[in-house]
Amino acid sequence: MASWLPETLFEIVGQGPAPSKDYYQLLVTRSQVIFRWWKISLRSEYRSTKPGEAKESHEEFLGNSHLQVQIALIFGARILDYVFNLCEGKFDFLEQLSDNLLLNIISYLDLEDIARLSQTSRRFAQLCMSDELWEKVVQSACDTITPDMRALAKDIGWRQMFFTNKLQLQRQLRKRKQRQESQGNSKF
C-alpha cells in the first residue's frame, strides 16, 4: 500500500435503520476495517450493554459476508462498494488532494470537461461552481483585470463574469461606475 496515504482512509458514522437508535462507526485504515456500535435503548435489559467493536484485516473483511451485510444495511450499498475498493487497494487518489490543488488542476480543463467533471460528485460540483475556479479561468482568458472588473466580479461572481459577453460587461462596468460617482456626489 502506498506509504504516503494517511493512516485513516475512510470514516463514516451513522444511526441504524428505524426504529433503531443504535449508533455506528465504520473506519477503514491502511490495514484494517474497524466497525463499532453503541446500543441506544430505554429498555432496562440493554442499559448495561457495552459498545462493541469488530476489527478485521482487509482480507478478512472481504471474506466476512455477515459484516458486509451489516454495513450495507446501515450505510448503504455505495459505501460498501467503496470500502470493498479500498480493501482491494483501489484508491481514489483525487479524494486525497486538497481543494486548492484540485482547483488549480481544474482551471486547465476545457469548459466542456469542467461541465462533465461537475456531474461526477458533490465535491467536484462545488469546486466547478466555485468563484475561486472561475477567477482563475477569467485570469487565464484575459490579458489584464482592472480593479473595476474585480469589483464587478465581486458583485456578480467570476463565473457570471466569464459567461457574460464583452458588450454586456462594458455596460455593467459603466453602470457601476456611474452609481459610484452618483453616490460620491451625494455625500457632499
UniProtKB/TrEMBL annotation:
Give the matching CDD domains: F-box_FBXO36 (cd22106)
A single Gene Ontology biological process assigned to it is: SCF-dependent proteasomal ubiquitin-dependent protein catabolic process
One term under GO cellular component: SCF ubiquitin ligase complex
Top-rank taxon: Eukaryota
Q: Which Pfam families match?
A: F-box-like (PF12937)
Q: Which InterPro entries match?
A: F-box-like_dom_sf, F-box_dom, SCF_F-box/WD-repeat
Which ranges carry the F-box domain?
Answer: 91-137
Its protein name is: F-box only protein 36
Taxonomically, what lineage is the organism?
Eukaryota, Metazoa, Chordata, Craniata, Vertebrata
